[in-house]
Every structure is written in C-alpha cells, then in structure tokens.
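Escalation from tier 1.

The customer reports that the assembly of two entities below gives different structure tokens on two consecutive runs. Tier 1 could not reproduce it. I'm attaching the input and our single run for tier 2 to review.
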Amino acid sequence: MKKSALTLLSLLLVMTMFLAACGNNGGSNNNSGSTNTPSSAPEESTEPSKAPEPVELRVFSTFGGTDAAREAFQKAIDEFTAANPHVKVKNDTMSANDDGFRTKVNTDMTSGNEPDLLFYFIGTDATEIINSGKVVAMDEILDADAEWKNGFAPAALESVRTADGKIYAIPLTGYYEGLFVNKKLFEENGVELPTDWEKFKAAVSAFKAKGIIPLSGPFDQSHYLIEHFVLAAAGAEGQAKGLKDGIDPNWEKGLAAMKEVYDLGAFPEDAATIDLGMAGNYYSEGLAAMILEGSWAIGGWSEETKANTTVLPFPAIPGGVGTGKDVVGGFGSGFYMSKAAYDDAAKKDATIALLKHLTNPASIKSIATANGGTPAAAGVQPEGLPQAALDGFKMVSEATSINSPIDSKVTPETFSTIRANIQPVVTGKKTPKEALEEAMAIETAAK
Amino acid sequence: MMKGDRKYILMFLLPAAAFLTIFLYYPFFKSLYLSFFRTSGFYSKTFVGFDNYSRMFSDDLLGAATLHTLELMLYVIVFQVGIALLLAILVDNIKWGKGFFRMVFFFPVVISGTAIALLFVLFYNFQFGLLNTILQDMGFNKVNWLSESMALKAIAIPTVWHYVGFYFVLFLTAMSKIPSDFYEAAKLEGISGFKKTFLLTIPLILSDIKVVITLAITGTLKVFEFIFVLSRGQNGTEVLGTYIYKKALVDQNFGYGSTIAIYIVVFGVVLSLLANRLLKRDEITY
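Tier 1 run:
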C-alpha cells in the first residue's frame, strides 16, 4: 500500500516536471487582452453577424514593457475584442531593444509556433521569413478593401514594399533618428548648436571642458553612432550599398571621424561598458548635452529634458559626400500576417479584421501620439506632442534623403563585427580600414 | 537485489534518462552536427566542412575570451574556494550561532545573478554610482571602475561573492562529517589552532575540496550574466559564455556558435581532468 502510494507520488512529480517543461516558453510579459468586456460599442468589423465560432489570436509585438505605446496598443486591442466578443486576443510582447526579440521571432516562425499577427522589422531581418513563405503578401487583401488601403499615406505603403514588389508588412508608425540636443545646456554654456561639423567639434570640446558629457553613446550598442557617422560621411547612396561592392572609402572616414571626436572627449568616460538605457539616462538627467537616438526615445526622457530638447540632422563629415541633411528613418517595422493564420479558415477573417482595426487611422493616431512616431495613415496629425517631436517631423520634411539604417543593409554578424570594433577603432588599437575589412570578410563568408 | 526490483529501478531511472537525452545529449549532438554548417538564421544552412573549425583557430576574439575566462577562473578558485574554506573553518570552530552564519553566508546564492549584477551596476556606475559618490564626498576624483585595466577584476568580485556561500555550505557539511574521535585524539596530543586546521581538518576534507574546485572550474565556464549586465563584454571582459551568446543569438550564426559550444565542452572537460590529475591523492575513508 505504502509502496504504491510512493510510486504514484513520484509519477505525479515527474508529470508535473514535464508539464512545467512544456509550459509557457514565452518568458516575456504576456498580457492577455481583456476578453469579454460587456460594451455597447458598435460592430465595426467585417465579421458575419450570426454567432461566430470563438477564436483565439496571438499578436506578437514590441508594444510591451517600457514601450511608450504599450497602453495605446492594448487599448486598440481591447476596442476590437469589445466589438468582437468571440475573438480572444493574446497580446504577447517583448522589448525591441533586446537581441532576444529577433531570436524569439525566428524560433517561433521555424518551430510551427507562428503568431497570427507579428509586428516585426522590415528589411534584412525579415528576408528569411518572407523567403520561407511563413508570412503572406498583403497586396490582395489591401486591394480588396479600398477604404482600408486609402487610409494609408501612399508613401508609407511604398516604403514597406519589398524587393519583389509585394507588401508583406502593414505599417503603423514610422520613426526618425537624429542628433538630439539639450538646448538649455547649450544656452547656459554659450555653445552654438551643432549645425555643421566644426560647430559640432567645438561643442564637444566646450562641454568636455565644463565636465558635461558631450555625446552620450555606448560602444557596444553603438547602432546609432555607426548609422549616423557612416551616413554623414558616405551619404545616402554610399550607405545604402552596404558592403556589396567592397568597402566604400567614405565609410572609413565616418569611423575616423568617430575617433576624432573621441580624442576630443566626446563620449562618456564609461562609454565602453554602459548600455543604451544608461546612455539615455545620462541625457535624460541632464548630464549629457547630446545623444544620437530615435524618435521613440523622446517619451522616456524626464519632463525637463524633453521640454529643452530639439533634434538636428547629424552634420556632414568634411571630405565625405553626406549633405548634412541626410536622415535615418522611415517605416522600420509593420504587421505581418502568418501563413498559418491565413490558411486557417477559422482564424483568417478574424485576423484580417484585427489587422484592419489595429491599422485604421484612429488606432494609428493614438499609437503615434503615444510614441511620437510618424503616422502611416493619411492626413492624421497626432496631438499633444512635445516640441522636440514637432522639430523632428520638420527635420524629416526638410531632409535630402531618408535612409533605412545600416543594420538593414548588412547581415547581423557583419553589423555586430563593426559594433565590436568601435572601441578598438576610437582608442586607436585598430584602424577604420582594418575594422571594415574584418566586417567585409564576415559579409563575404555569409553570402 | 530482488528480481522484482529491476522493474522499479528502470522505472525510476527512466525519467532522468529521458530528461538528459532530450535536454542534454540531443542538443549536444545537434550542436556537433550544426558545427559543420554555415547557417543563415534558422532558415537555411549549407555544409561547409571544417570551415567553422578553421575559423575558430584563427579567431582572436575567441582567444581573448578564453584568456579572460581563465583569468576569472583563477580569481574564482583562489578567492571563491579560498574564502569559502576560510569561512567554513571559522564557523566550524564557533560554539553557537552556526545556523545563523550558515544562513547569512548562503543567502547570496539564492539571489539571481542578474539581480546581483544590476546591484553592482549601481555600485560601479561612473556618473552616479555608490562608490564614486563616496569617493567624491571624501574629496577624491571619480574612478572608472570598469575601465580596461580593472573591469574584469571588478566583475570578479560579484562573481566570487555570489557563490561563496554554496561552497561554504559544502565545506561545512564535510567538516561536520569528520568523526569527533579524530579531534579528541588531537586534543590529547595537544594539537590545536592552526595546526589542527592544516594537519587534520583540511586533509580530511580534501576530496570535497577537489569536488568544489571542479565545480568552480565548470561553473566559471558558464559565467554570463555578470559580464553581460555589467560590461556587455567590453573592456577586456568578454568570456566564453558571452561570446557564444553573441555569435549564436545576436549574429544568428548558429553554425559557428555550435562550433564554439563544442570548444567550450572540450575545454571544460580538459580543465576538469587536469584539475583532478593535479589534486590526485589517496581517498580518505573514515
């Protein structure tokens, strides 16, 4: 009797362990959308009115954690589930800053665990997913619903078109990156805004002398540093080529300029070991006068810094071919619909309806208002934006070119080789040429 | 053994065997297989023979990561094992409060490594870290604790601290197992203090020290969170754990990542064998 009870107990234990192992592999914050909020919201979906079968959809996106648009996104989902009580939406999220996000998406896509809607990057990151046929082209669905399609700004839809001429990702909000500067610190210290390279260098020296960090930027997560220094030296075309036709000598000039300002003391003392979050923190706390960041960062800064911030295009580097008005930006991510959801008769219509709801002008407006991004919808003007965001839109409208960032032009390994070489280059252990040749070798091997 | 027992033995061994197969042997052989491929993310792979291995032998960063791991291992063996042994001897010699000290010293083991690392970020931060604030208040200049010359040593401190308690408990348990007649005999012979510790206690727990050193060596190969959170592998702190993460998961180069995984396994086995050989002594039974 006692023995069999023991056996039973251990079996139970083993089963629990199996269950635990097979359980949630998401690991991230899963906020399930509210399910059955009784509401009198009007039916706005294309769902058939006769009691539809209940379905559960999974939306995987970056609208979680500290993302500025987290609440706006959740609200858009709640609106949808309120109007369509038979649909349950699982709002699965992970931070985009985290390298793990790409891994999670790739694991999901290859292991038969595709989310029904995926909010993911456009460019090299998505190429393999598109080529493997895991997501569907949206052109037919767009053409079938003129009202939905016409809600988008034509330029936004064009910018998400892939090389094969099809649209796979439905854009939501765009972004821009630039040199964010703390106007108050510039005024207080009598320094001119860095509108050209000489003024930029002068500002670096002036702030360094005052004990203020001139340019807050980390060397490991140096994405924005690399993007801007290379773009400012190589110009739009030189940057867009990536490393396809060998190393553009202007790329070397970009890295050399980074060393030049490093020698002037541009970066924080601990630039090598801080991460992007800490770099943003230095700027937000008023310890740093400038930072290279994206439009999404504005919402995270302290109220005082936010009010004193304006954004400028990164100045052209002398000897290069940049115009000084080249901007990194565009629509860097969008909603993909998985092939699995498309083929599943029970899910197809609900997924499309949800996608239409999330990308209708009202949803786009509220998300753009929250994250300060450029709305993808036509004629939508986000409200209550800080001056810095308006300055950003102005900067983009005056730009001579709007470029997608370098890491969408080269393979991930090539880009991290450049990243890993930033510190050796600025401290003089490697020349820019050596660093880029190393990256080139990786790029060639990956082909 | 009764004949019927065999059935139960198999039944109880099966879950563990299944777990090991699924989560250890299968991934290991899969890594071995993948190490012969050039992968592009998860989607496509091409057979490249020994390319990854030849790349491995000319990879400066991997060499540097190995050296940093060895340096960290030295700190861990000397300080982690050393401090644990010292604390165990001290606690073993006190009459009351053993339970209290055992709990206090063991406590950091329970805290997640990432949490400790984040704590030390706030200690070491150059701009507003605890250490630099204290220095400034005392009128000294700020120090970059994670500079190129100091980063690895600075990171070794939380690494050592985190697991001292674990080895301390192992040592303390080993010491409590020493039969008291040994000590009574020593007392009659008039041996006490340092002599008792070095001639009696330590030799009698030598086999445990050996186990702990092996654990420390293999444990150091897995160090990841302290480096990743505190320095992101910059300033001469890249270790094997962070390097493999960057290659396999950030770069999405699973082929080369798998090759490094194989290298780490071989490296770990060689080091443990070496440690066992160096510490070879006759087993003591009591």
